[in-house]
Amino acid sequence: MSTTASAAEELAGLSATTLLRFATAGSVDDGKSTLVGRLLHDSKSVLTDQLEAVELASKSRGAAEPDLALLTDGLRAEREQGITIDVAYRYFATPRRRFILADTPGHVQYTRNMVTGASTADLAVVLVDARNGVIEQTRRHAAVAALLRVPHVVLAVNKMDLVDYEETVFAKIAEEFTAYAGQLGVPEITAIPISALTGDNVVEPSANMDWYGGPTVLEHLETVPVSHDLTTCHARLPVQYVIRPQTAEHPDYRGYAGQIAAGTFRVGESVTVLPSGKTSKVTGIDLLGTSVDVAWTPQSVTLLLEDDIDISRGDLIVPSHDAPATSQDIEATVCHVADTPLSVGQRVLLKHTTRTVKAIVKEIPSRLTLDDLSQHPEPGQLVANDIGRVKVRIAEALAIDSYADSRRTGSFLLVDPSDGTTLAAGMAGESFASAEDPKALVDEEGWDF
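The structure corresponding to this sequence follows.
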């Protein structure tokens, strides 16, 4: 068989496999990068020149064996400190499945990066050092995974070799984490005892833990059920750009381009444009230069409508029979990711899909206490890495779905209008506890919506 034919068959096989997006999280020095490096190395997903570069870098640091963590810690500062700072994305595949992994930082100050890495993940691997057990950062990562509605969570109890592979140590940590994550509403938790350094239960079953009869990390990643069928969700198209060539060939062409966030659009379907509420009918769909009758998420398309409607970037096109309500008031749970606090009365920008509007933080009803999952009422402000409830008043009505219904159109960012810094990541409608409506604030600086 020719090399070309073999490559074609391999490509066809990969395209037939499912895709799993997953993120790793855990505290500093719990071994996330080593786990990812071991996963890539033992699954034969590391190129020869990459491995040679790691071996050379390890020798220069005086290490006798290759430091597999260097396969993901690419920044100079990361290698010098031996920690992960930025989110490192890696792509690899096995005969059973394709993977996109996000190796996220463990240090408290970089929790914001975990929010980024897990926002699109189907699964989160939370590492715990077997010597330290469940700590505050472990609980924070579990809370973030729950808020982001990551469907599957793997508890990887690492460094079992340093506790003599004791089953009782693993069982105690697994019980504590499962109880905590269960209170947060995490739907599925799988606990696996591992040693990333020696490879125990990462790709191959461990000979040192015969008391464990569950899957290895890779086996679980290859077999966990994943559904990417968003075509049955509420159809939403955030408009990114209005196309008007005004050429001799297309003198009257007016198309509304964007990536379908969820659902399916069809020619002949009645649609509503939000927030204006104007209605029309889809007369055409252009996809990659070709006219099609139907398009679905996550395709990038251009919709042609029957009527000339005033539509611009930031508007949302939805089926008329399934249009969400619009509102100027949003209540949501946010993960505060900035170094500067988020305070009651603060003026911000709210970015939802392709639209950015002015807003005011009217209330902060509560802040989550990670130790016991209680709510601290009326904190007044949220600081870096806090998780809390906010009520925001926006200048223009927006159509925001519940995050439980749509991770794409139910999420938003709060941005500092002075320098563009992201302040918080919000999940609309998401809540750990209900709070009564306090008295509304009166804005004194002219942003009176």
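Residues 289 and 324 are 30 Å apart (CA to CA).
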